[in-house]
Design a protein that fits this description.
With 66 residues, the chain is an alpha/beta fold. It has one helix at 41-54, and strands at residues 6-8, 12-14, 23-25, 38-40, 61-65.
Length: 66
């Protein structure tokens, strides 16, 4: 049985530093207190691999941002 999870990108995804600190949310776009939605490609990759390894949100859409 395949487990499908779909990821939603932050509004601004760009190369940068890998911080290892990010938020994972539901289907809604994640923003900070100033309305910004961003993540580095490095941290998005980490979040994506974490989700594959743990299957923490099966059959749902998730969003990832700082």
């Amino acid at each position: 049985m395949a487990i499908t999870t779909r990821g939603r990108l932050a509004a601004n995804i760009a190369p940068g530093e890998r911080t290892g600190t990010f938020r994972v949310g539901g289907d809604a776009l994640l923003t900070d207190a100033e309305g910004n939605s961003r993540i580095s490609t490095e941290d998005y990759a980490v979040a994506f691999i974490d989700e594959i390894e743990t299957a923490g949100h099966p059959k749902t859409r998730i969003s990832v941002a700082y």
